[in-house]
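Because showing beats explaining, we let one protein speak, sequence and backbone structure tokens together, and leave readers to judge.
___
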Amino acid sequence: MPMFRISEVAGLVGVSGDTVRRWVDSGRLRAARDAHGHRTVDGADLAAFLRADPGDDPARQVSSARNRFRGLVTAVIRDEVMAQVEIQAGPHRVVSLMSREAADELGLGVGSTATAVVKSTNVVVENEPAKGQRHG
């Protein structure tokens, strides 16, 4: 199973390295030290942690949607009826179309924070091709 350094865990989960260190220090996430003294997390342990009890996440107690992307609103385009809202959530760009009224009521504007909640029955997963290979 792959081993991940604290910074890699933080990048995968979308939190700071300090947050991951707090999880490790509190015993919520198991880590070991590598030959250089760096803390590492086993991939299986990380997967189990991420599947943990929903009681740890109050948002999961009130919604069936599990895909939540908190980020910064980077663009809002409004017309008379609709609004297009772009959110940068870590490395992910999420675009939502909603009524202008909803965007106004939520106070969405460039620089504000928001959480995109995604519930979908159709998810496309793509694999990155190995170096030297092309998509076929």
Observations:
- The mean pLDDT is 83.
- The radius of gyration is 19 Å.
- The CA atoms of residues 86 and 95 lie 4 Å apart.
- Strands lie at 3-5, 32-33, 39-42, 67-78, 82-89, 92-99, 113-118.
